[in-house]
Amino acid sequence: MIEQPIYSGRQSLRNSKLCCPPQNQAAIQGFHVTPGAASNLVVAYNYKKLLTKGVGAAVSPQTNHPLPCCVWWSLWPNRMVWLTWMLLFMSHTLASGNTAPQFKMNTTFSVAEDTPLGAWLFQLVAVDADGDQLTYGMTGAEAYYFSVNSDTGNVTLKQTVDYEKTKLIRVEATVDDQKNAQSSGKILNKWQSEILNKWQSEINKFMWNYKRPRIAFKILHDEKERRGQGVLNLRLYLHAAALTATADWIREPQGFKKLTIMVKDRNDNMPIFLNEPYMTDVLENTTIDSSIYTVLAKDEDTGSAGQVSYTIEEVIPNNETNYQLFYILFNGSVVLNGSLSYNNKSSFYRIKISARDGGGLWDGVIVYQKNTAYLSITVVDVADLDPQFLGEPYVGSVPENSPLGTPVLTVLAIDRDKAVDDVIVYSSVGAHNMFTVNSTTGIIALSGNLDREGVPGEEVQLQVVAREKKLNIYQQVAQVSTTVTIQVTDLNDNTPQFYWCEYPACNFTDFPVSNFSGQIEEHASPRTPVTNLSIVAYDPDKGLNGTFQLSLHGPDAFAFSVTPQQIVNVGTVQVLVSNSSVLDYEKIPNHSVTVEIVANDTRKTTDCCSFAMVTIRLLDINDHRPEFNQSEYKLHVLEESPPGTIVSSGITATDPDSGIYGEITYQLLPDSILFTFTVNASSGTVLVANGSKLEWGSRSVYYATLQAVDGDGLSGSTQLEITVVDINNNAPVVSGSYNVFIPEGQDTVRVQIQATDKDDPETNNGRLMFEIVPGSFSRNFTIDPKTGELISRGPLDREAIPKELGGNMMVTVLVHDLGIPQLNTTVNVTINVEDKNDNAPRFNSSQYVFSVQEGLPGISVGTVEATDTDQTEINYRISFRIESNTGSNNFLILSSRLRAGWYQGNLRLDPDIALDYDRLQQKLFHLTVQAENSDFGGAVDIATALVQVQVLDVNDEPPAIVPSPPNDIRVLENLTLHEWVATLQATDMDTKHLLVFQELGVTCFNRSVNVGNVCHDWFRLEPNGSLVANSSEIDYEVCDQVELKLRVKDKFTQVGDPYSGNETLRIIIGDVNDNPPVFLPITNAFVVIPEISAVNLQVAEVRAADADSGENRVITFAISNVVFISDNGQVQVLENLFKVLTMAEKDLYLGNILVASNLDTSLKGQYQLKVEAKDGGKSPLSSSTSLDIFTVDKSYRVGLQFDTGLPEVQANLGQIKVALTMATKSTIHVVTIKSLENSSTSKSNRATRKMLMEAYFVYSNGSALMYETVITLIQSNTEALSQLLSLGLSIIGPVDVPETNTEKELFGVIAGLAGAVLLILFIMIITLMSIRKSYVRKLKALKALKVASNFSVSAPQQGPAIPGTNKYNTEGNPVLGFSLDPSAPLDFEDTTSYDAVSLNSLDENTVDAPVNSSDTPIKLGRTEARWREDGWEEPLKAALENRSQDSDDKLQPPALPSQKYLSFDNPSLDTTDL
Asked: How far is CA 834 from CA 780, 800, 840, 872, in A?
């Protein structure tokens, strides 16, 4: 289909449909017109479906009409028909019948950012109908990312992809059967030569007819542009346009397909904080929950990986309180979470803020990227605190009667708001006329007459207020008060006096007292004070002035003393007894004494003493006790005497005291005696209180105390012994009952009769006699009449006693006393004669033999029998027991009665014991069985029999593997097949057994991790316990521990489990150094910038691991070879440029490649390092790898010019790097920052300081950016461009990096030193000359001023400026044409004219610089260099500011190489900045 006409220069393409007949319109559909580069026209015809018929003839496949000539005719009428047929002839000749391959695959694929280099991505798949071998390829501007296997079509990653740089990759996949490529090329070359030779002159002739310049005509086989499809191009080059006629070959071309590869984002970027550094000031009274600052971090990743969240990691000062002081919101706003205090807390905080993304995939694992920044917070002090007094409490002193104005002390207060530090004003509160306070200095001085004795408490308290001069932030007065205590010191101007009072409740304003009275008991103890005497001595003076001595005088003073003997100021006076013997109430007349107390102030020479008379009255005391004539009295009384019977009379006590102290009363002690006896309280007569209590048999003697007590409680006593006289009033009493059991046949029976009489045994009333009362058995016994012992006359026979009595014999005994009247009693004695067991048991056999199987607890073993001929059951009863010996505790024997006198013993095993034949040391038990009767009345008769018990073995024990658990077996890897490893042992306690080992399972471990069944067949366990290697592939790196689960079976087991317990045998496989170190793939490209690469700088890294263990896996790296491959292909072997530092990291070893010496900055290309890794085995193994380190030479250095000073560039360096990284996505390496100024720069050009920053822009893949690319990337990123412009960036360009020449540098240093010496000499000479010329200039200026004063102010001003000043004379300003005030100061200067150069009007003012797309000058907001207070303005400055057009003198950029620049105009230029 024909496109719309396209014009190139003056030649147009006519509509083909207008020049072709209708029948040929269909054929025109095979043609198309496409635009070429730079206004070219391409007219092409698609011959893919044309059929050739004959040489030189071609028809349309649709209409069978001749091929259209009007297409070319429309371009070149009547002149180009031959060209069309020529192309058709060539197409026919080159035609082929081969079918082109076709792709059968998708066109869209994806690749993740973290895909490692060399990873398989997808496969190119095509089919060819002819079955030809296909060759795959890939073309396109971005095809360098991939590598295609030409045979299989497998596409792998060749270059790391970056989602942030490229989100879609478009390439074209190609496939070719390579059938006709060679022959077509030969034909094409032949035709090309023939056509050029034959038609060159005709074409030239044709073109000259159309008045076109001579051109060249050529036919090209353009495989690159037409993808190798065999396109025949015919280009006619005109001066402004080109027309290309293209005819495809008749054969099918190679296949191609456009592919789109989508790059999937991965979390490979950390959040970047913007606009750092972060600093802010916060008022200390900022309220809680206030936002104080907002930080911003951006993450270039997408999805959750690009979502940034903020946390506070640390707050310095670092403590828990400060950590809770702030929190951060999701939008980066830092919020105050507590109160601030400039004084009490920190005045500065440094917050470590972490920005973390939401996490994303990287290498199949969710990873999180984070970055940190610091926010510096300065707390600003505000006036919110009251002032504070220093040195509290304030205490001072001043002597009484001091002169007015005497300073006492100084108070000092400060403003606690340290940064505010307001003025403090002092004042006193309350009316006090003695002291005043200075409002400024705080000095407190005396302002009135001062008498210490007139001051309460001897001190004065002032309330002093310190007030800040300004109101606080709450518009309130900030003040604080303190109490000042002023103590008044004393002078000795008072005499001590005596007062009648109780201290401290004394009123010393009353009159003193000189007479006192008191009382004391006679014979009072020493140091006893006189009572009812309240004396207080007081001297109102202070300290030593108030100290006085006390003493006693008078006729009776020797009997007393005074205390204290010295008093300071005030004290209570006491008079104490010192000699109590002379204080006798009965001996002293009038019963009173008198003493005089003297108070002497020894520091006074006159009026020193005071006197006090004290009258002391003696009090009588009870100092005598009642006394008896005897200390002990013995009395008698008959038992059972009636109450009131007088026991004694006339026992009295005497007391010499009179009055109540001489009145005596009597009482008996203790109180318990009063139940039997009593006493007359006034006479002291002792009487019987209760006669029934007087029983001699109960108590024969009573002891009591007769006490005499006077009226004051003093007592005296005597002891009474009252004896009770016995009478015969008690009959004998027999103790207990008598029922005696004796065995028959006992020789003598003795029974002691116990009897008592409560009467006195020393008299007949208490003496007893015994006799037997006649009876049935009285003749069988005798009794001792005095002792009462009953004795049998001979042995007693049980059979002689009537049976109905049951063996009991009863005898009656009479007991009587000898008193008058005689009293008696009787008692029955019963004697029970017991039957005697006189027959022993007997076994039926003396020996028994039994057998028993093991393992049967409680089973019956056998029986034994015994008999007893006694007739009574108690005598013929038999019990069996086993005599204790070895093994007897395993058996029990039970007795059972067969009939009277015949018993059986059943021998059984203990129910809790099962005999174990295999564990018994004794297989045959020898038991002794005893048969005994149960006669408890005498000796036990015992019969014995021997019993043998044989234990029979049963196979009931399970086998066991020994030891348990089995010992670990250690073997080395790589065992040979069937090699013996170990033999396991097992035991069985049974006598007959057959043991077989069985393997139950195998578990494989590697580094304590279960690795499945990799070792399942490595070892084989034989039935006899032999363990052998069953595989020759035992590998430590695959499995280092094999756990073999096994057991043993006893095939002869009869009872129980035939299997042993399951055991686990650990086979520990030792490592053999059989694995060399393996390098991990290097996924990163390494880059080095020689110019800024210092020694020990890390430039690359290799990683390796060794599958062995221990020393065999320890890896050491070394660099074995360093080769530099330059860009032109030259190879250079280098040494000692790099070194490697080996480090361990978990299971890997890292080899950090460091710079070992300075790198050559002139080399361009890449370093190729061969790194060797060697393990630490005894026979070490090694491997090596190669890595490339790309160099970034000086040609990539980019210059960035800034219109700011060095401090500003250095301060903004972080922001500059962030903006450049944002625009270029590269790493910025700054080489230097230097000024572009030089000594030849004019003043106008020095108005704006210009700094040049030289840097490299490097990517992680080893590539770097030239300055042209940097310019393009910055221009395409408006945000980064805006930031860089705001930071002063003006020009970006290349940097000329001259090659260093040591000789030239040395020469330059020497020349510089020589120039410096000459310059110093020159300056010294000029300085001397300037000093002289300065005085001359000033003299001329004075003279000119004098002359100028004669001119009229209104006259035109034409004169020049006054030398040495910034003022014009009265002749006026030549620029403005107005006059000046001649009286205005001319600012003569003391400096030389050379020093004044920088002070001229040009250096004082701002000159407007040109601004893009605006004619209006923009002024900087710069402070004017000189202004007078009266508003006077420098004239030249005013003229320059009001000029109507821009100055032509514009600043030029620094002389950089003649390259393409990116420049930015600075909106203003300040000459003073130069």
From this structure: 17, 12, 18, 12
Angle between helix 1213-1224 and helix 1278-1286 axes, rounded to 10 deg: 160
Check: CB of residue 451 under 8 Å from CB of residue 401.
Answer: yes
pTM: 0.33
Please say whether the beta carbons of 1452 and 1409 come within 8 A. no
How many helices (H) and strands (E) the chain has is answered by 13, 97
Pick the range with the lowest mean pLDDT from 536-540, 957-961, 1281-1285, 1423-1427: 1423-1427
Kindly tell me if the per-residue pLDDT of 454 is higher than 80: no
State the average pLDDT over residues 1427-1432: 44
d(CA 202, CA 198): 8
Q: How far apart are CA 1086 and CA 1260, in angstroms?
A: 7
Mean pLDDT of the 1398-1413 span = 38
Which one-letter amino acid corresponds to residue 881? R
Residue 550 and residue 612 in contact, taking contact as beta carbons nearer than 8 Å? no
* Cα–Cα dist 169/148, whole Å: 15
State the DSSP string of 192-232: HHHHHHHHHHHHHHHHHHTT-----EEEEE-TTTTTTS-EE
What Cα–Cα distance (Å) separates residue 238 from each residue in 82, 199, 659, 1323? 20, 17, 171, 70
Residues with Cβ within 8 Å of residue 1074, at least 6 apart in sequence: 973, 974, 1108, 1181
Q: Side chain identity at 300, as an amino acid letter?
A: E
483 alpha carbon, distance to own chain's centre: 49
What are φ and ψ of residue 1323, in 5° steps? -65, -40
HSE-CB of 741 using CA atoms within 13 angstroms: 7
User: What mean pLDDT do residues 815-828 have?
Assistant: 89
> Could you identify the residue written with the tokens 């001749």?
66
Please count the other Cβ atoms lying within 10 Å of the Cβ belonging to residue 5: 13
- Name residue, tokens 């006493």: 679
Q: What share of the chain is helix, strand, coil (3-state, %, to 5)?
A: 15, 40, 45
Going by pLDDT thresholds of 50, 70 and 90, the confidence category of residue 1304 is low
Where are any strands of DSSP class E within 888-962?
891-899, 902-909, 924-933, 942-952, 960-962
350 vs 538: CA distance, rounded Å: 69
Token pair recorded at residue 4: 């719309």
Query: SS3 sequence, 384-451?
Result: CCCCEEECCCEEEEEECCCCCCCEEEECEEECCCCCCCCCEEEEEECCCCCEEECCCCCEEEECCCCC
Q: What is the pLDDT of residue 1042?
A: 94
- Return the SS3 of 1472: helix
State how far the alpha carbon of 1372 is from the alpha carbons of 1182, 1338, 1344, in Å.
Answer: 94, 20, 13
Residue 84 amino acid letter: T
If 0-12 CB within 10 Å is exposed, 13-18 middle and 19+ buried, where does residue 899 land?
Answer: exposed
**pLDDT tens-digit profile of 579-610?**
988 888 878 888 899 999 999 988 888 888 99
Q: Between β-strands 120-123 and 154-157, what pairing exists: parallel, antiparallel or unpaired?
A: antiparallel
Instruction: State the Cα–Cα distance between residues 1352 and 877, nearest whole angstrom.
Output: 173
Percentage of residues in the chain with pLDDT exceeding 70? 77
d(CA 754, CA 732): 10
Which sign, positive or negative, has the C-alpha torsion 6, 9, 15, 16?
Answer: negative
What tokens appear for 1055 in the block? 């009872």
Q: Contact at 8 Å (CB) between 916 and 890? A: no
Q: How far apart are CA 870 and CA 312, in angstroms?
A: 107
Residue 812 pLDDT grade (very low, low, confident, very high; cuts 50, 70, 90) = very high
Residues 6+ apart with CB under 8 A from 966: 984, 1063, 1064, 1065, 1066
Of the pLDDT bands very low, low, confident and very high (cuts 50, 70, 90), residue 160 is very high
What is the token pair recorded at 728? 């015969």
Asked if 862 contacts 880 with a C-beta cutoff of 8 angstroms, the reply is no
